Every structure is written in C-alpha cells, then in structure tokens.
C-alpha cells in the first residue's frame, strides 16, 4: 500500500508535471499546466474540506469533480475552461496508465462548446511591409533604440510564423546551415521539433542584428545563448516581446489593424494566411506552423477562400448582371 502522501492529489500533480517536463515542454506550457491543475485542485480542497496533500486522488468522484469545474468555470472564458478540462483529462489519463485510478472521470465532466478559432491576421494588404519599413527606419521611440534588433524580431515572426514562446526559446545555434541554405530549428508544442527554411533576405536581417549585438556588448555569441535579447543582454521575455510589437505598430500608425485578442499571434496568422493565399496546401502549412492537426491549417485555406468570394461578390459588375438577369428585364 502506498503511503497516504504518495496517494494524494498534491503528490500526483507533481509526478504528472515531472512527466510533462521529461517531454521537454516549453517553460510557458509547463506553467500553464501547473496553473490549470492547481486552480481546480484548490476548488476540490474547498469542496472536500481537505488539503490537496491529504486528499487521496482515487477518492475524487465525478460528483465532486463536476462541482469543482462548475466553480472554476464561473469567472472564466469558455476557451480557458476547455483548456483546463483538457489538462485534467490528460492528468487522469496518466493516472489510469500508472494504475492509480481505475478510470478517467473526466469523460462525464461537461466542458464548454467553443467555436472554431478564426485566424486574426494583420488587417490591410500592405501592413506587414509598412511595419517593417517603419521599424527599419528607427521610427519607434525607445530610450535605447535598437532598430536592427526590432526588425529582426518582427521579420522572424512574419517570415517564419513561429509562436511567441517558440521565438523566445530560440538560441543562436537554432540558426543552422550555410548562407543561402539557412534553416531555423524550432522546438514547438509538446517538444516537437521542426525546421523552417530561412530566405536570404531574412538571414541578412538576422545577421545584421547579430553584428550590432556584438558591437554593443563586445562578446562572442555561443550557440547556447538566446537568439533575441533585450537592451541589457538579458533574454527577451514575453512582456518585452508584446511591448515591442505593440509599440512598433503604434509607431507605424497601424494599431487599429490588429484584431481584438491578437497581438504577437497576429503576425503568425499573417504568415499562415499569406501561405494560403499563395496556394500552399493544408499539409504544407501544418508542417511550417507545427500544427498537430491538419484541420487547424485548413482553417486558413477556408478563410482565404471565403474572403476571396466576398471580394468577388463586392464587384459592382455583378450587381449589373443581377439586374440584367432579372425576369422583369
């Protein structure tokens, strides 16, 4: 028989997180898993009157889990609750495999129905190009201007479609290959790696940034160093990246071209949307973006096709044809 503390919810949450860490997940992903697990665990502790270190995981009934999720969902969005549900579903799946519980109770715990996510690229046909030109010209106001770094960050987001967490995880050594055949090695969600081709123009922008970085800090750049850093040569972080993108759009006078709920991710969506517009298949988009499901990539193609039809329908010539084909004519 396992000791009481070894059977507790708190214990198995830590074991599960260690299991996830062994899969080499990104730090932000691990943090999100922990938040989802501890948030509902706190509700379970309140409902049962027992701390998570004293609450045996095999005593969590569907009834108490349903109540905990209802309380958790009260002040959160449907997408947030769905993500938490998925985390706990994975947690109980792990416990079943480990022989800790006999079945997965999450299958009878309701979760919100969420509408399929709609891509939110930057609005305006010339927005990406105007943004890059503005940043390259050093228009963005900053205490310690570094337009070469800003341009490299934005260009990498727009030309590779990497997620913000993936960009922040890049190392100097993530750039591999010779000039003219450069690739960017990215560690994506779930520890899955992918390789993205780097065209000469983007390679030149990144190399120029690295030269200015050497000039600023006077050091060699080991492959293990973060690729993108702040003005103190500390690794660029999520808040700094969000600020850089927001201020760059503001400097370009294009803050209104970012749809609600998107910021850094809008650049990824722009990359994917342009791939779809240029005829890339769902499989090609999925490979470049690191999508686990091809359905996610198909969304960009579907949206592009719909936008094209709306544009065609807006042509005034069609209204004339409608009048001419009317039975009254």
UniProtKB/TrEMBL annotation:
Keywords: DNA integration, DNA recombination, DNA-binding. Gene3D superfamilies: 1.10.150.130, Intergrase catalytic core. The keyword DNA-binding applies. It comes from the Bacteria. Residues 117-313 form the Tyr recombinase domain. Residues 7-96 form the Core-binding (CB) domain. InterPro entries: CB (IPR044068), DNA_brk_join_enz (IPR011010), Integrase-like_cat_sf (IPR013762), Integrase_catalytic (IPR002104), Integrase_recombinase_N (IPR010998), Integrase_SAM-like_N (IPR004107), Tyrosine_recombinase_XerCD (IPR050090). PROSITE patterns: CB (PS51900), TYR_RECOMBINASE (PS51898). It holds the Pfam family Phage_int_SAM_1. This is Tyrosine-type recombinase/integrase. The lineage of its organism: Bacteria, Bacillati, Actinomycetota, Actinomycetes, Pseudonocardiales.
